[in-house]
Write a structure and sequence with these properties.
about 425 residues, alpha/beta, Adenylosuccinate Synthetase, subunit A, domain 2, ten-stranded mixed beta sheet, 12 helices, globular
């Protein structure tokens, strides 16, 4: 199908509604058949999207999840912090598998770069925190966003002016090396080394740069469909998540506008991705966490390890109160429930509908880690099912108990279910309401 024929000018934002790892990559890949382009609008290479097509697994970190569809353009917006070394390594990995990337990837010149000193700062800070560490991936994401807000970031555009780039690097490292050496007791980073590495990569990187907002505007004028892809889950949002145990960017649906350069009126549908249970990576409160056999079973069946970091995920029952917060801050149009098959075989399944707290009952996740840590979940227990849901592609073929669980989940969250994922493969999907129709 030609790119120009894909759409009627409808744009869909795909976001995670929990603490990340909800399976956004598979859903974006599945929906890409309807679009001419996929846009990544926030985060860095700390994200990991796992795609399985015809049994073959592909792990993406920075490249938008539409890359496996020939002819579809992939955009990296200005809201992404970009590691040049990680990006080129990912491109090389994909192209070694005969996937054309460089001719279809369009990167905003306004992307701030993650450089070696950001990684050094990130790792030294976490080490210094000891038991109080936040649980970052140590990839330099937070320090790079700090430089962006402080107006000292090195952006992709700076690679076009080597002399000015050298000056900016010298100024940035005069601060960061002081912190590394005298505050964090770590090794300094060489200005010349960073500069030379960037100059070596610049010719290849700059060939993929573009005025992304202009290209997206032109695609809209041609009535093409676009997908906007978030990286982390909404409950890790820097403003709305369980602060300070959050990521360093805005992960909510509204960030698609700022992080890609499109007006909010051009975002027509918000698809919220959520697991049929709950997981969390790193530090921070997690009200429904199960540090018992249930949690171990969920982790084993769901293969709950980070696709990029390999870190084990903490597992627990579905938290409707947390999802209500996501519904509020994202304006979710419809839900996609993933990993339903992980619940196969449980004799009973628990669903958190609210919290008991020292100040009374709450029906929605409160702000801040301290408040969330005081929440005791209030559970509703539902019967499980003995039949399998793995690979089921029609709603009527699901066990009745699974249908009742999904319907109840939708009811307590307050959002309709548009899709259900019943396995890792692209086609293991039940469609109830197509976001592009």
């Amino acid at each position: 199908m030609a790119v120009e024929s894909k759409g009627q000018g409808r744009n869909v934002v795909v976001i995670g509604t929990q603490w990340g790892d909800e399976g956004k990559g598979k859903v974006v890949d599945w929906l890409t058949e309807q679009v001419s382009g996929v846009v990544r609008f926030q985060g860095g290479h700390n994200a990991g999207h796992t795609l399985v097509v015809n049994g073959k697994k592909t792990i993406l970190r920075l490249i938008p999840s539409g890359i496996l569809h020939p002819g579809v353009l992939c955009y990296i917006g200005n809201g992404v912090v970009l590691s040049p070394t990680a990006l080129l390594a990912e491109i090389d990995e994909l192209q070694s598998n005969q996937i054309d990337v460089e001719s279809r990837l369009k990167i905003s010149l306004a992307c701030p770069l993650i450089l070696s000193y950001h990684v050094a700062l990130d790792q030294a800070r976490e080490a210094a925190r000891g038991d109080a560490k936040i649980g970052t991936t140590g990839r330099g994401i937070g320090p790079a966003y700090e430089d962006k807000v402080a107006r000292r970031a090195i952006r992709l555009l700076d690679l076009t002016n080597p002399q000015a780039l050298k000056t900016k690097l010298t100024e940035a490292l005069s601060l960061h090396n002081f912190v590394l050496e005298h505050h964090l007791h770590a090794q300094p980073v060489s200005v010349d080394q960073v500069f030379n590495e960037l100059m070596a990569m610049a010719p290849r990187l700059l060939k993929m740069t573009a005025d992304v907002p202009q290209l997206l505007y032109e695609a809209g004028q041609r009535k093409e469909n676009l997908l906007f892809e978030g990286a982390q889950g909404s409950l890790l949002d820097i403003d709305h998540g369980t602060y300070p145990f959050v990521t360093s960017s805005n992960c909510v649906a509204g960030a698609a506008g700022a992080g890609a350069g499109v007006g909010p009126s051009k975002l027509h549908y918000v698809l919220g991705i959520t697991k049929a249970y709950a997981t969390r990576v790193g530090g921070g409160p997690f009200p429904t966490e199960q540090t018992n056999e249930v949690g171990q079973t969920l982790a084993q069946r769901g293969n709950e390890f980070g696709s990029v970091t390999g870190r084990p995920r903490r597992c627990g029952w579905f938290d409707a109160a947390a999802l209500r917060r996501s519904m509020q801050i994202n304006g979710v149009t419809g839900l996609c429930i993933t990993k339903l098959d992980v619940l196969d075989g449980f004799s009973e399944i628990k669903l958190c509908t609210g919290y008991d707290t020292p100040s009374g009952r709450l029906d929605v996740l409160p702000f801040g880690a301290d408040a969330v840590a005081q929440c005791t979940p209030v559970y509703e227990t539902m019967p499980g099912w003995s039949g399998t849901t793995e690979g089921v592609r029609q709603w009527a073929d699901l066990p009745e108990a699974a249908q009742r669980y999904l319907n109840r989940l939708s009811e307590v969250v307050g959002a309709p279910i548009a899709m259900v994922s019943t396995g890792a493969d692209r086609d293991d999907t039940i469609l109830l309401d197509h976001p592009f129709q």
